[in-house]
Write a sequence for this structure.
């Protein structure tokens, strides 16, 4: 398996622009997670999906952030409009969750810079 | 609610020396415990995990960790550190019935020659 795939790997944009980050989870996994990593705040869970349904989006910082999972093999995280404080590395992870607590497999991340 | 504490932000170890990274968790029931490693510019990679059974867990790259319920700890160890082990290490806790993991803030390992 190719692992979790994220695109783009790097994104540089200007304040106010829309940004869309993409994720393809590992085939057969039923849970998908979006994280944000910064020096100041560490690794933060933004939202997670189970069987394509958003379960907990309490980590989404503002209404400017939205996430979708239209099918089991694709998810997007959108920021509109983007702001400099959104600059971070965004990770997507997936897992097979049956009874819960299973390990998550991380993608390589998207480094977002908002100027 | 679950929580994870990694008390050391940075640790410097000489190459060839032994390593122990500390992790303490807070959770009322039996936790699921994980150690991940993140090399610069990379995603997190699972080193090892504990769900149940033997409290000493072996992982990849020569790492091991020991679950101590009485101390609420899951410390990561390696007998001899290599320069390629320089990275950031994250401890995480999960639980039965929950899909999410709670991560510690990480420990940055520096390896000196």
């Amino acid at each position: 398996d190719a692992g979790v795939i994220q695109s783009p790997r790097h994104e540089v944009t200007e304040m106010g622009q829309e940004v869309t980050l993409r994720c393809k989870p590992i085939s057969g996994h039923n849970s998908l997670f979006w994280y944000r990593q910064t020096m100041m705040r560490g690794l933060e869970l933004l939202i997670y999906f189970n069987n394509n349904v958003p379960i907990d989006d309490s980590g989404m910082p503002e209404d400017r952030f939205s996430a979708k999972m239209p099918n089991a093999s694709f998810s997007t995280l959108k920021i509109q409009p983007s702001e400099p404080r959104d600059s971070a590395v965004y990770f997507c992870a997936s897992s097979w969750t049956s009874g819960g607590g299973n390990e998550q497999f991380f993608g390589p991340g998207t480094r977002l810079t908002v100027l | 609610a679950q929580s994870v504490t990694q008390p050391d932000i940075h640790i410097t170890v000489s190459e060839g020396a032994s390593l122990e990274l500390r992790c303490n968790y807070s959770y009322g029931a039996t936790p699921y415990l994980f150690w991940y490693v993140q090399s610069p510019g990379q995603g997190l990679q699972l080193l090892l995990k504990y769900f149940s059974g033997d409290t000493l867990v072996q992982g990849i790259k020569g790492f091991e960790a020991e679950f101590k319920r009485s101390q609420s700890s899951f410390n990561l160890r390696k007998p001899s550190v290599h320069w390629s082990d320089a990275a950031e290490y994250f401890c995480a806790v999960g639980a039965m019935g929950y899909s999410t993991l709670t991560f510690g803030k990480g420990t940055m390992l520096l390896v000196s020659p």
Observations:
- Chain A has a mean pLDDT of 93.
